[in-house]
Amino acid sequence: MSAALQACLVSLLPILAIMAALKDLTSYTIPNWISLALAGAFAATAVATGLPGSTVGVHVAAGLIALLAGIGLFAIGWIGGGDAKLLAACCLWFGWPGARDFLLDTALAGGGFALFLIASRNQMVRAFVPFTGWAGRLTTPGEPAPYGVAIALGALIAFPSSEWLSYLHTSY
């Protein structure tokens, strides 16, 4: 496979993660097609980069474990269904131990995002900055947090240290 094709395929993880974050931020939903596209892009990228079968198996296992955990978190009402699927699709890309770093980065991004939401939902802040539209909903006290934003940030933070960049050819 050409290095340019590999680069395009590898770039789909951050591109689709950003799309998921923007969609969740503005609509509180993550379309299924984004998680499915991430899974399909992983398969195509694994083939294009020659990822060994045993490594693919580890990635699939990480994705399945994350999906089961996500379903559990969804069942108890801690995250949305789109969040669970996005988390699993990202873990598919990171495999193990990369998923550990991705999940830690996601948790830290989620904490930072939660602090931002707490601050922006303060009545005094809302009095000085009149948010409207999706930003108004986002900063309304009692609204849920679009956790897809934290998942996407976690993926973007973890991506540069993932194995994917090492599979790219450095000469074009």
Report on this model:
It contains 8 helices and no strands. The model has no long low-confidence stretch (mean pLDDT 91). With 172 residues, the chain is mostly helical. It has one domain (3-167). The protein is elongated.
What descriptive keywords fit this protein?
single chain, 172 residues, mainly alpha, elongated
> Strand percentage, roughly?
under 5%
The overall pLDDT average reads 91
Major beta sheet, specifics? Answer: none
Identify low-pLDDT runs.
none
N- to C-terminal distance? 12 Å
Structural class determined from secondary elements: mainly alpha
Count the DSSP helices: 8
Q: What percent of the residues sit in helical stretches (DSSP H or I)?
A: over 70%
Number of strands: 0
Shape: elongated
What Rg do the Cα atoms give?
A: 17 Å
Order of helices and strands: HHHHHHHH
Oligomeric nature of the chains: single chain
Number of domains: 1
